[in-house]
Amino acid sequence: xxxxxxxxxxxxxxxxxxxxxxxxxxxxxxxxxxxxxxxxxxxxxxxxxxxxxxxxxxxxxxxxxxxxxxxxxxxxxxxxxxxxxxxxxxxxxxxxxxxxxxxxxxxxxxxxxxxxxxxxxxxxxxxxxxxxxxxxxxxxxxxxxxxxxxxxxxxxxxxxxxxxxxxxxxxxxxxxxxxxxxxxxxxxxxxxxxxxxxxxxxxxxxxxxxxxxxxxxxxxxxxxxxxxxxxxxxxxxxxxxxxxxxxxxxxxxxxxxxxxxxxxxxxxxxxxxxxxxxxxxxxxxxxxxxxxxxxxxxxxxxxxxxxxxxxxxxxxxxxxxxxxxxxxxxxxxxxxxxxxxxxxxxxxxxxxxxxxxxxxxxxxxxxxxxxxxxxxxxxxxxxxxxxxxxxxxxxxxxxxxxxxxxxxxxxxxxxxxxxxxxxxxxxxxxxxxxxxxxxxxxxxxxxxxxxxxxxxxxxxxxxxxxxxxxxxxxxxxxxxxxxxxxxxxxxxxxxxxxxxxxxxxxxxxxxxxxxxxxxxxxxxxxxxxxxxxxxxxxxxxxxxxxxxxxxxxxxxxxxxxxxxxxxxxxxxxxxxxxxxxxxxxxxxxxxxxxxxxxxxxxxxxxxx
Length: 608
Prior knowledge:
By secondary structure, this protein is mainly α. The chain has two domains: 466 residues, Amino acid/polyamine transporter I (Up-down Bundle), CATH 1.20.1740; 92 residues, no CATH class. It is built from 23 helices and six strands. A two-stranded antiparallel ribbon has the order 1-2. The chain is elongated. The two termini are 38 Å apart.
């Protein structure tokens, strides 16, 4: 009983912490979903059924894609506690021969964390489909490009999230100039509103305020966020309960019958009445399922599921339902739907909470961007960058200066260039849905080759979730002229950079591999070259895990002398998130490694 109580307490504690990092982006989406969904021709369909249909779409989208697909299936495909695009790819590489990663050897499989405890039996025979991919270089290259495209979408989200989050929260200041507060508002709020009417007479001032907050956010990364990180979770929890309360208030005040929209029948009526305009509105509705960045290295799948199912999901449903109830009676408030639906006495407190929640959500996405860049760099798909562990005793908390300043410049450029939250949101939605679509196409491979389930389950998963997401992706592509082009531009730029860097590293490695020299050859030709042994120890860095690099033979040819003891040092990356400290050093004799490499056994002499 005591152990069970301790486990439950630990899960609850991790669930509490996950609010600050995993769900920030998802939790602030009510700020702009309805505003973006009713952008364009859908504004002419001002009926209660249309509003109920939009809410029904939002509800079932969150339920099917966030609750069922992500929480039930995707979180199961963790890589020793790590999640994400590269975690899925690493799982595939270890269970199949799909990998194009460099410097892999048989000794890697002897690491205790190489295969997880829940991995299926790896001795099962290979299917024809699996062998087809393994023996086709183009298929493996296409798979790597798919992963790199998904990775580029994560980096693009890291650019767009701070822009759309902070700008949407600042929009509340503009909305306040159009609101008439009741006499219940205190005099301070009234005087403050008069002050804002003067300060924000020009919309450019709002952009300047947003840029100032964004600069402060990225500068804070350099100074360190550890001192204020303990505030992230309570801020998001308070925000979620605040918007849920506002939603519940609007349901009872404006339209209690909105609960009927939980029926998918209203989705049918929505598309029947709106036609093409309803399909185009999906580009805004998809913003309700923005990316969930679950840092599973710090939390656990169970804690993330608990937090989402017990708090995040019901709070978001109540908020979206409340907005739908309010808008069904106040169609003219669509441009400022979220802030217009807030009761007057609570407008300014909720506005302040929205700004804080936007900063926390942006912080979480910046962390996720640092993490994905680190994974790309470790696997040879990103230029060399400086990685700082802050704090050193917390696994996964890193800071990359070059990426931080790059994100700041790009985010400020997007904010100043667009100046319209809806255009930034459309670009953001395209990036999020493209990332979800890539994940959906990787999951069937995980189901079939890692979990060893029948191909039928992979096909069913693809048909169910792939069809839904394909409809959303097609709709989001219509938003390219309205801001989505920046997503295409940034993702192509990042994909090109990562693939070219990987291609260059691969060509360099293959050259070294082709020109390496067996130690037997050096020992045999040593006397004829007149090689002299010098007292001491020589350290030679090499990219090869076995054999002697060609640079060493070039050195001996031009200067026929070497130390009595020569140590070849190879720093390599294994596609797993964590290696135990005692297994991080692989020591052996090069001569024995050379003989073993010829037999394809390559067993280590000792592992420390």
